Amino acid sequence: MITDATLLFGSLLKTTEVKKIDFKGSQYRLDNDILKSEFIKDILCMVNSPGDDGYILLGVKSEKGRPIEVVGISHDHDSSDLEAIINSVIEPPIQFEYYPLNYKGIKCALLNIPKSKAKPHWPKKDYGKLERHIIYTRRSSGNREAAISEIREMFLSSVSVTDITRQKTRMSPHILDELAEFDLPQRRQAMYEMLKSMASNVSLGKYLLMTREKYSWSISGPFAIVSNVGAGVASEYAVFMYPIAARRGDIISSRSLVKYILDTYLDYLRIKDKPKKRGLVINGNTSYTYNQTAYGVGRKVSTIGRRLNENGYNLIHISYQNIYTRFTGLEWGMIGLQNNWNESWGKIAKWKSFYPERSFYEFFIPNVASKAALVDSLSNLVSWVNIHPL
Fold first, then answer.
1. Which of 69, 87, 128, 248 could join 34 in a cystine, given CB atoms 3.0 to 4.6 angstroms apart?
2. Residues 6+ apart with CB under 8 A from 235
3. N- to C-terminal Cα separation, the chain
4. Given this model, what pLDDT does residue 27 score?
5. Which of 260, 262, 283, 265 is nearest to 273 (CA)?
6. Does residue 139 surpass a pLDDT of 80?
7. Domains and CATH numbers, the chain
8. What's the chain's Rg over C-alpha atoms?
9. Whole-angstrom distance, CA of residue 95 vs CA of residue 114
10. Tens of pLDDT along 189-236?
11. What is the pTM of this model?
12. Angle at which helices 371-387 and 184-198 pack, to 10 degrees?
């Protein structure tokens, strides 16, 4: 994670364009498969090339590998959309971060492509200018198909004796990746179906899937609601499934969605019994305007809002691969972090909300690729909650 993208952007401007640094005079265009494949190829070649992290600076004109002018970009892309484009074509999936920024009053962006331990990466299908199963890399002369010697070096650089020993210790020969053959939308759907089918086995019931199409919101989603039916005190869980890695933006978006649903439900609750006329709430001898769209959403999500508000709620993030958890000190509106700690099955954070005033847990479970792994992780989670009530 980059803590100050603007500072790093300025530092990178002082260097020359080498294998792991690239300058682009404009934002990537993603209007069609050809243009998308050009973006994918840049990321693919960067991650397959030797060395440490790679960087692409958007909005910087260059000449012979040297930055000559910061010209800026006209718009930003959503990082989750970029990730979906990359990982719908490339395997193994590539991890990268997109940082929109403002450099001396000019809109720019920085792409950070961390050094990969899963090299080489390649297209799993023909797509635009990319050929299936061809391994590409970056050279001083540009992006090219890798030579046999370069491919051999990629494999050797991504494997160490320590990694092999650790993997053998951690993995059982019976572990099976049941989701590997799915594309991202199919994998997300399969993960929710696994949750629905096994929830009652770990004392989680009243499964309800929330979708943007049905409940009219524009951020994040879908997510599922389940109840801890085995605990002495009723508690609800908002469960978010991530079909690849769960990144910082994904986590923040999911949190924001839960807060949005609660806020709109509480607003709806506050004025639902008051008379309304021409966009005004009539309250005795006074009247005031209200957000009719938010009121409509609050009414539409009242079933789930009531469950979260009356029974208390926790958040669960379950990822097919790794998951972002470097959140210490990160404020979330009127919510403050109280504590966080690690368990063998995942990470836990305890938060305090000031409106409405209550505490709740947030759970982060990575590397769930099968129903057995999901049952094991959620069984541990529920057992932990039952002996650590809020």
1. 128
2. 227, 228, 311, 312, 313, 314, 385, 390
3. 31
4. 95
5. 283
6. no
7. 5-169 (3.30.950.30), 184-387 (no CATH)
8. 24
9. 7
10. 999 999 999 998 888 989 999 887 666 655 566 899 999 876 555 689
11. 0.57
12. 50
Adjacency order of strands within the sheet including 335-343: 204-210, 223-228, 236-242, 313-319, 357-365, 346-354, 335-343
Residue whose tokens read 């002996």: 387
Q: 45: number of CA atoms within 13 Å, CB side?
A: 25
Ordered alpha helix ranges (H), 60-104: 79-87
Average pLDDT over residues 67-86: 90
The DSSP line for 26-37 is SPPP-SSHHHHH
pLDDT tens per residue, range 78-123: 888 898 899 889 988 888 889 999 999 999 999 999 888 788 899 9
Answer whether 248's CB lies under 8 Å from 324's CB: yes
pLDDT tens-digit series, residues 22-43? 999 999 999 999 999 999 999 9
Selection from 132, 131, 130, 134 nearest residue 148 by Cα: 134
**Amino acid identity, position 349:** A
Residue 244: enclosing H or E segment and its boundaries? Answer: none
Token readout for 212 is 């943007």
Nearest-CA neighbor of 102 among 13, 25, 10? 10
Q: Is 329 exposed, middle or buried (0-12, 13-18, 19+ CB in 10 A)?
A: exposed
Concatenate the DSSP letters of all residues of 152-172 into one string: HHHHHHT--HHHHHHHHHH--
CA distances from 69 to 73, 119, 193, 293, 373 (A): 12, 33, 51, 45, 51
Q: Which amino acid is at 45?
A: C
E strands in 234-295: 236-242, 276-277, 280-283, 286-289
Q: Which two tokens stand for residue 340?
A: 């966080």
Cβ-proximal residues to 215 (8 Å cutoff; 6+ apart), any chain? 297, 300, 301, 304
